[in-house]
Amino acid sequence: MNEIFIGIDLGGTNIKIGCFDSDIKLIRKTSTPTRADMGPDTVADKMAQTAEKLLTDAGLSLQEVPSVGLGCPGPAKYREGIMESATNLPEFKNIPFRKMLSERLGKPVVFENDANVACWGEYAVGAGKGVEDMVFFTLGTGIGGGIINNGKLVHGCGDNAAELGHIIIHPDGRMCNCGQRGCVEAYASANSTAKRATEAVQGGAKSSLKKVLDENDEITCKDVYEHLKAGDKLAKKITDETAMALAIVCINMLHITEPKRIVFAGGMIGAGEILLNRIKDYFNEHIWALRKEPVEICFATLGEDAGIIGAAALAKQAYDEGKLKSG
Ligand SMILES: [Zn+2]
Questions:
Q1: What is the residue range of 224's domain?
Q2: pLDDT in tens, 172-218
Q3: Chain mean position to CA 212
Q4: Which residue, 164, 259, 286, 288, has fewest beta-carbon neighbours within 10 Å?
């Protein structure tokens, strides 16, 4: 019998679900509104029912599924399968989604926070394929992270390892949403990049982005990299600062876990090669001179399906290692 693995990506707006073969090739996917306002039990019901319907629509059955992977936003108690909290799901606090889903489907569920899930997806079948040591950053509203060390996700003693967005790069720097000052997230997330551009334009810097701010009342990171590509000097300066901040954390991570590959994902990577090359330039400029490490810095390849792919890949990994547990 061929095994089928299900990957579920629980987000603030939508629940995405995919079913995959044992090579983690997508067979079919679907999505449904989360409707967090209906409460966690309804959300768990929806996850289970949508997964079962997806299998039926694909001509498959739950009997072929040895395990299910679930990625949740925000900090999570990985060992207990509890989603602690998330800014995009403020209604939910300490929800035992692993147990709730496992009971509904009658299958073991593997649970992780969404950054670790995306990290594992890239490691298993994406940009990190073929290495044993990888560091992953996702540059979105904030900066999420994941670390693969010797083929394993690093969780830490309290499941809070790899909060890479909160590595401090400027002790007296910009205030971060987490309460610390000078976190890389306060400089290089998609939102912080847009915010720095907005502040610069409001402060009188000359830029083609001024028109965007006047017309839309805001500048997005997409605007920044579109104007960068059109040759705007301020957009280049802002992107350079983002690249510099990211290069510094890459160097710091190199000294901690010595990854073979560092992978960036999220909205910011839409800036393309210009951003990637600047990160590499700054990295090479600031890394110690004695030993130039052959670390590869690259962009993620799985795109918007990273959540369901990573969740399914985690489910398969736990199955292959005989580490499945119910509840
Ligand atoms: Zn922070």
A1: 131-301
A2: 999 998 999 999 999 999 999 999 999 999 999 999 999 999 999 99
A3: 28
A4: 288
